[in-house]
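Readers outside the structure-tokenisation community will struggle with the description of the input data as it stands. Showing the layout once, in full, would remove most of the difficulty. For illustration, here is how one protein appears when written out as sequence plus structure tokens:
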Amino acid sequence: MYVMREGLVEDREALYRFLGEDKKRKEGGSISPFFLVCHDDQVIGTIGYEQVEKNCLLKTFVFSATVDKMVFIKFFSYVLSLLRQKEINCVYLVTKGSATIHFFEEFGFISIEEYDLPESIQEIEHYQAAKQQKNSLLLVCDLCTNISTV
């Protein structure tokens, strides 16, 4: 059985195991807010995010090789729905290559330039690192106007 939900403090150990980040935990690293998808009580996917005011940047998409496309689609739709409930206006993400842009377009994301990005999002450390990647693309989904659930 699949369970999709917002991650809790008590989920961090399971998330560290899933991500293989024991070293980061031991060094005092932190994990930003996250969503989980579990199968039979095992984490099989996560999406991390950082919220700034009424906007957020999706930071981490990690899924086990066993996650099929339909589970990922349902989970991503669920995440956008929860962010809408949190009264997030815009969701931003950085992706690599044009192949993935079509997937995100199905959820109402559009490509934008950096000058369209709020300064508060530009200042996020993850964004600074991601934009340095070759072929990175910046996308936004306006949750106030987009009601797509795919």
Q: What stands out?
A: The first strand starts at residue 2 and ends at 6. DSSP finds six helices and seven strands in the chain. Residues 2-142 form a domain with the Aminopeptidase fold (CATH 3.40.630.30). The chain has one domain: 2-142.
